[in-house]
Amino acid sequence: xxxxxxxxxxxxxPAEARGxxxxxxxxxxxxxxxxxxxxxxxxxxxxxxxxxxxIVRNTTHKNRAINMLSGxxxxxxxxxxxxxxxxxxxxxxxxxxLLWGIATFIFVRGYVVAIKAGMSTIGLTxxxxxxxxxxxxxxxxxxxxxxxxxxxxxxxxxxxxxVLFAFxxxxxxxxxxxxxxxxxxx
Length: 186
Fold this sequence. Notes:
By secondary structure, the chain is mainly alpha-helical. It is built from eight helices and no strands. The protein has helices spanning 2-12, 15-24, 27-50, 52-57, 59-82, 89-117, 126-147, 152-185. Helix 5 (59-82) packs antiparallel against helix 8 (152-185) and helix 7 (126-147) runs antiparallel to helix 8. The longest helix has 34 residues, at 152-185. It is elongated, with a radius of gyration of 20 Å.
């Protein structure tokens, strides 16, 4: 009988409350990914501070550094927003839409500026631009689904985040390689 009462209560439970329960199930994911993103952003910041002159002088390196820091920072902020207490899916979706809209703009702008500058071409390929943009757009799509109260937005955004991690880590590697290959060209 108790099971029947729980099922009945769940059926009359407001959609917002069901969204909150779903969000609570993602706590471990957001803690793990947010902590990883914060740690990697810190490591990139340290790596950049070792040789800032070369990064600042080269448009490709400078924009790649901006993209790596803003990408990991956006992941950290998205996870932080998801961990705010008492928040429902549509509220999180609005926050994420703003956050990922800005992060997407920074990413695409950085690539376009670097390509136009024509300085270092290491890693400035169409597939990297398309792949990274698709990750950011997955975040935006996930946010839109959350605004609509659809939990599938969490899964879309999570998949985009996981793949984005790979793009950001490989971008950080390309930044390091680019900095140290630059003198050999000159």
